[in-house]
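Data availability (excerpt). The following record was deposited with the supplementary files.
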Amino acid sequence: MSCRMCAIRDRHVEHRERSEETMTDGQIEKWADPAMWLAEAQEERHPTVTLLGMTDQPLRVLAAAAELYQGRVVRDVGDVSQETAKRWFADMTRTKLAAPLEFIDLHFLLEGVTRAFTHQLVRQRTAVYVQESLRFAVVEDMPVGEPPSVAGLKDDDPLKVVWTDTAETIRVAYNQLIASGMPAEDARGLLPTNTLTRVHYKTNLRNLADHAGNRLCTQAQYEWRQVWARMIQAIRDRPREQEWWSDAWQYDAIAELFKPACYQIGRCAFKGTADRYCSIRSRVDEHEAHGTPSSQWEDIQAWEWLADPTAARPKNGPDQSSQSAPTTQPGRHNDS
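Predicted structure:
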């Protein structure tokens, strides 16, 4: 530990102690704006996903629409066989004429996600959102999500001390401003980008699968993969929670649809000068050169792109140069 980092840590500890002496929670007597309300505290400090609604019998609904392509009219989705539903679902992954996927709607509640994440989420223009408002919601606990580079550190690590104490200083200042009569919509300007929030997210399966291609890629911020892992699990769990045991095959099939863009198109789609390193790119390139379909990429494990927060950071190794994207602008990405 450097002397400089120790000094920074000590200053932050001293500042935190002074802030705690200045103000304690519960001093707010009257808010400046009658439209202000107290936000429900975030119980978790990591993303959680609730699947509030999803089209019942999703693959049979999809197949009912697709059957009309071949002149067959379905008036009761219960008449669609499992074999027919599976066949049409598989067909939708092989054609651009995938409109039947849009007959399957999904409504998620995402909690414990950062506002950095939601800034990127709402760029998907084919979805509907309702987000917790910081203009009127008073977030007294002001939870701040920790990125992987901080979350894995010990509590007394200088970097973590700086992060946590700065967040605490901002929390205290935010509550002081509101207690002093400042409207929440003004006080929120002080809050960190990683302030945790909630958002309702409704889309259809076609757009969700397309969104997954970019957001499950290692090029995306790691939080995306954390959220997606929970969204996929929520889809798998839905028939089991509802005790629709005989329908589980439909939801399991849908969950398997979500993969990075390279799995969808059979090659790496991020090789521009602004794109980042990827730990699986060299193997994807090799499979592309040999014409190997992604269903046979047995040397690439899902955890490599889904669960490794360092997958987009160059590693020291003999094949680093062959896996790296061009480094004209290292570390930059369009969604940074």
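Summary of structural features: Residues 266-336 form one domain.
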